[in-house]
Specification:
It is built from 2 helices and 10 strands; from the N terminus they run βββββαββββαβ. The chain is of the alpha+beta class.
């Protein structure tokens, strides 16, 4: 058995800070993520990232640029629910300008949207997608692809 997810993520950097949200779902509580999430059936990834930014932060997001795409395969034994088998996540990363003041998502899968100093990110327990998004934003590779981010220590799937 395998599962698949297409997701869109916002990389919002301002004044040497990045906008992060804290996971509050039962499967990943407490680690940090970029605002974003699953693209719904029939939804454009740009619309998905704008919707997710609004849901998770209460802010308006304006997509400024496509940064790239990351495809990550998670082996079954590294999943929270290994019985579901191998999982592939394809993440579409956008540079997004944020307007408004962040507020927590009511009853959602994320909480605590925070403008986090870039220098503090390496010391946070975070999803690998944070590192992918920051690498895409800082390098802006012409291919829209960066090397896989190894998981372990503070970096999780």
């Amino acid at each position: 058995m395998t599962t698949f997810r297409l997701a869109a993520y916002a990389v919002s950097i301002s004044n040497d800070r990045v906008l992060l949200v804290r996971a509050s779902s039962p499967f990943g509580e407490g680690h940090w993520l970029l605002p974003g999430g699953a693209v719904e059936h029939g939804e454009d990834p740009i619309d998905a990232v704008v919707r997710e930014v609004a849901e998770e932060t209460g802010c308006t997001g304006v997509v400024e640029q496509l940064l790239g795409v990351d495809s990550r395969v998670v082996p079954a034994e590294e999943r929270h629910m290994p019985e579901k088998g191998v999982h592939q996540n394809i993440g579409v990363f956008y540079q997004v300008r944020i307007t408004g003041e962040p507020r927590p998502e009511p009853n959602g899968a994320t909480a605590d949207p925070v403008w986090t100093p870039l220098a503090d990110v390496p010391s946070l327990r975070r999803a690998a997608l944070v590192d992918v998004g920051l690498a895409l934003a800082s390098g802006k590779p012409p291919t829209g692809h960066v090397a896989a981010v190894p998981v372990g220590g503070l970096v999780i799937h």
